[in-house]
Each structure stands twice: as C-alpha cells, then as structure tokens.
Amino acid sequence: SSPQHPPRWAQARKRGADGRRRRQNEPESSVFEENEPRPAESRQDSFTTPEGPGPLSRCSDWGTAVEEEEMRTNVNKEIARYRRKLLINEFSRERKSSSGSSDSKESTATVELETDEVVLMRRQKQINYGKNTIAYDRYVKEVPRCHRVPGVHPRTPNKFKKYSRRSWDQQIKLWKVALHSWDPPTEGGCDLQEICPVDLGEMETESVGSNSESQTSCQDN
Amino acid sequence: MGETGKEEYKIQSFDSETQKLLKTALKGQQVFVSSPAMCSCTRPCTDLGCFPDTPKQSGPREGWVLTVFLLSADPSNVDLEKVANIIVDQSLKDCVFSKEAGRICYTIIQAESKQVGQSIFRRSLLNRLQQEYKDREELRTRSLQAWICYVTFICNIFDYLRVNNMPMMALVNPVYDCLFRLAQPDSLQKEEEVDCLVLQLHRIGEQLEKMNSQRMDELFSLLRDGFLLQEGLSSLSQLLLLEIIEFRAADWKMTDAAQKYYYSEVTD
Predict the structure, then answer these.
(1) Which of A66, A76, A195 to substitute to test the interface with B, most B CBs within 10 Å?
(2) Homologous superfamily of A115-182 in CATH?
(3) Start and end of every Histone RNA hairpin-binding protein RNA-binding domain (chain A) (predicted)?
C-alpha cells in the first residue's frame, strides 16, 4: 500500500543500500530490491585509494577477510615487538664495555626495517605455508629453539628485514627445502610438502643494499 | 597426497583440558552435553545433527540437549565444517540458541586454534553466515522468525568473536545492513522485528558505532523518522523506539530517569 505522499524519510534517503543515488520519489522498496539485473562481474578485482597502503583486493568471502585481518593485526603486533627487542639489544650492548663483542647480533647503526604492510603480509603468508607442514611440526618438536645450531638447523627468514624480492623468495625456498629433512618417512619417497607460495601480485619495492644473510636473533615464532 | 576436491577435516581427539573448557562454556547456558545414547530419540542415535525440538521435562535435564559432536565416545572424528553448519541451522530455528551461540562458537574457535592452530571452524561459520546474508531478503519472506534469529545470531557472533581483541571488521557493514533492513517501514510495523532491532542495538550498538559512526547516525535518522511518522506502529513499538533513541542519546547508557520510566514497576 503506497501512501499518497511518500513518507518524509523515503524522500530523505539519498541513496539505496547499494550506494546508488535514488531518484526523486523513488519508492522505498527499491532501496533493497535489486530491480535491474546487474552487469555480470564488472567490478574490479582490486582497488587503490589515494591514502591507502596499496592495492587492496576485493574481499571474496568473510572467512578469508577475517583471516587476513587477523594476519594484519598479528604482523603489526610482531613488528612492535621486534622493534622493542632491537631496542633492548641496543641498550644492553651499550652497557657492556665497548671492546668489540664478537657475538653482536645487530649492527649498531639504525637498521631499516621492512614496514610495508603488503610486503609483510605476503611474506607472512609464505612463512605460514612453510610452517603449516608436518615437516615443520616434527622439526620443532625434535629441535627446541635453544638447541638450534646455526647453519645446520633451518631458521625462519626474518620478514622484518629489508631484502629484495628475489633474495627473500630464495631464502624461503632454501628454508623450505631444508625443512624437508624432517618430512615423515613415506614408502615411495614422494614429496608430500610441495606447496607453492601464492603470488599475491607484482607489488614489491626492490630494496637497495643489504642482501646480507647475516643471521639475526631469533624471532619469537 | 594430492587434494582432490575437499578433504573432510578431522581433528584429533580433544584433550581433556579442551573438553573441560567446552563443558564449562556450555554449562552456563543450561545445556547438557550428552552422549548420543542419552538424546531423546527413542533409538540409539549417532546423528550429529540431532536436536530434539522439545526440552525434556523429566529429570535434571533442562533446556535442550546438544548432541555429542564434541564429547562423544569417539571425539577423534569431528568434521568442523559440519559442526559450523549444524550450529547455524540450529540458530535459524531457535532464537534462544541464537542468542548464546556466539559463546559456543568462541569456545570451539579457541579450542581449534589451541589444538591444531587452524581456523576451519571459523572460516566455515563465517562463510555460511555470508551465504545466509546474501539471501536474507528471501529468508525474511520465507520465515520472519528465521530472519529474526539470523539477525540475532550474526549480532551475537559480532559481539563474541574477536580478532586480536578487535571486533571483526568484515562483519561491520553486514550487521549494519541487517539493522537497516529492520528499520524499514514494513519491518517497523512488526513488533518482533522492532524488538529484535532494539535488542541488538542495546547489546552491540556502542561497539558498532565505534567502528562506523556515520552509519549509526543514518540508522538513527531512520529510527527517528519511523518513530514520528510511521503509520501502523504499535504502542509497544513506539515505546521501544523511543527508549533506544534515548539510550543512544545518553551515550549508550541507562540513565536513572530512563530506568525509572521504562523499566520500573508502575504503581497505580
């Protein structure tokens, strides 16, 4: 039953639920109904806002969206923690007498960290793929972190350090190959753990400089 | 091992600590988790989806009985995706359940995360929720009650499930969309929908506003208009709307005056 004069709020609603502007006197019911057939999938897969961190992919489903949200907040927590750890290392080293301690873990110069969220998320996903394996589980159970021997035991690449894309991808590859030593024994010796990292896009900042593979202090994960 | 299609996910047996955790979480809701043999079906029942419709009156069992999938004799084979679907299905049928399902889901998510470091349950739950959300208009046409249960459920989930102590961003707009729907003229004329709307705003309004205050402003604009101009509003609906408008104006707090006016016994 449509009233003679459309209720005031119907006129006051400038936009329908889909964001399109409503024409004058458009009935309220069209706000939620999808009268016109939509052009099939004409929406872009990703979009960039001027002040955003970079291309944002359109959320495909809530499950994925929440997982990414979680990863993003975890990464932010981790970087804060990592920064604190670096600071603490700085302070404790300053306290010791300055006769070049051979086990200095970080250079005293300010280390530039990787802070680009897109890069960090991509790296974290690659790390997650590597850790989400039976081999990694077995490795971690067999060799507690404090017993790890550098050079012998694989070490998770540090996502907060500046590396070029190629360098990083190579480190990941080597790390995962090394983890294969802990694959569970199988009959045919087939490779159970061949997981390809997802290529999340070409977005990358080639970082100048340090391509060093200096081992750093343990990450917390 | 190639993954052809979808592999049924199995969780290794919940350890006793997790079981205790689940029992405690469920206890406060007057739900007794029982083994299949104890459900009210007359024959031995191993059906994961068995929810007797009427609560059993006899004995110490109250409310309804959640069948076993968590604490069965054989907990080692729990298909979490199925569990998620069962919970959603039940929420759409039973409004009392949908109010509390958030807590159950929270518990399962914690348990899964702790046990195996995965989030199959959460993912299945959210995607199922999204499916229902896409078809919500049909749902409402099909069954007003199920629609109301759905809104209650999704708001409950929003309330309980957090990501690193923050509400889930992905749910903010869908929740708003549901509330906006409830504020439409045809819904305002139904007391049950108005009741649902104000209940949800009481529970999660403040949080929702923090996540997106502009939409909350728009929503209350609709509510104000509805209160003033909507024909066919029952006096209860009017009361509910006025109360929530005042509640928000008081920064989502109950003032003494409002408490006295709306919630105290009136002496004739």
Answers:
(1) A66
(2) Histone RNA hairpin-binding protein RNA-binding domain (1.10.8.1120)
(3) 116-184
